[in-house]
């Protein structure tokens, strides 16, 4: 008997930081920036991994390791979907160009922003329609803010889960936690977002992680975890 599907929703990376500026800088010629300026573009997962560093690197590795897409839903790819600023939910392998990133950066991620909320709700409903009763949807992102949580709860209700171990941790700690889970080939524990404690006591620091070589997409990408 096939295991139930498990779809992961990865919160978006911010594009207004130092690494986002590197991509937008006129004349940028390092490999990722150059590829974004071609028709083919780059997978959105790799772009967000670059601008976010450890946090998105952890989310991407974790989702790719444990996602199971529903049968007959090829548009979901492997079941790892990124929440975007104005295109709703897209597979982590969806290719984007610089023009897409410029449109992302001009859209406010806010529950009252139609350009953000409408595509997100539209695609969340499409995901929901493709799920069987036992299938799960797991948010890999913060539940402390309503910016995308409320829209997702509106569609998924009690079916929307998140790793309980996230509570009280900052972004870097969550990223490291997910990478360690991938190393151990053991998933975190999932609890419903509805009714969950959104802000908790900070847990102890993670123990040092053994070095694992990962293919960098740019030589400046941080390797610490």
UniProtKB/TrEMBL annotation:
Positions of region (Disordered): 199-225
Biased composition (Basic residues): 199-213
Recorded superkingdom: Bacteria
Basic and acidic residues bias (residue ranges): 214-225
Protein name: Uncharacterized protein
């Amino acid at each position: 008997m096939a295991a139930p599907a498990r779809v992961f929703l990865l919160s978006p990376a911010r594009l207004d930081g130092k690494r986002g500026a590197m991509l937008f800088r006129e004349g940028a010629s390092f490999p990722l920036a150059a590829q974004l300026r071609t028709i083919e573009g780059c997978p959105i997962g790799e772009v967000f991994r670059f601008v976010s560093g450890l946090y998105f690197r952890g989310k991407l590795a974790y989702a790719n390791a444990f996602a199971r897409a529903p049968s007959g839903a090829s548009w979901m790819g492997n079941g790892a979907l990124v929440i975007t600023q104005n295109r709703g939910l897209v597979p982590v392998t969806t290719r984007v160009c610089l023009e897409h990133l410029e449109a992302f950066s001009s859209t406010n991620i806010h529950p009252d922003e139609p350009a953000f909320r409408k595509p997100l709700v539209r695609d969340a409903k499409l995901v929901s329609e493709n799920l069987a009763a036992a299938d799960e949807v797991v948010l890999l992102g913060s539940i402390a803010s309503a910016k995308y949580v409320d829209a997702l709860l509106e569609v998924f209700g009690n079916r929307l889960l998140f790793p309980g171990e996230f509570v009280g941790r900052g972004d870097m700690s969550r990223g490291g936690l997910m990478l360690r889970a991938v190393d151990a080939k053991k998933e975190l524990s999932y609890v419903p977002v509805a009714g969950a404690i959104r802000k908790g006591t900070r847990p102890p620091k993670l123990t040092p992680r053994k070095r694992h070589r990962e293919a960098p997409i740019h030589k400046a990408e941080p390797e610490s975890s």
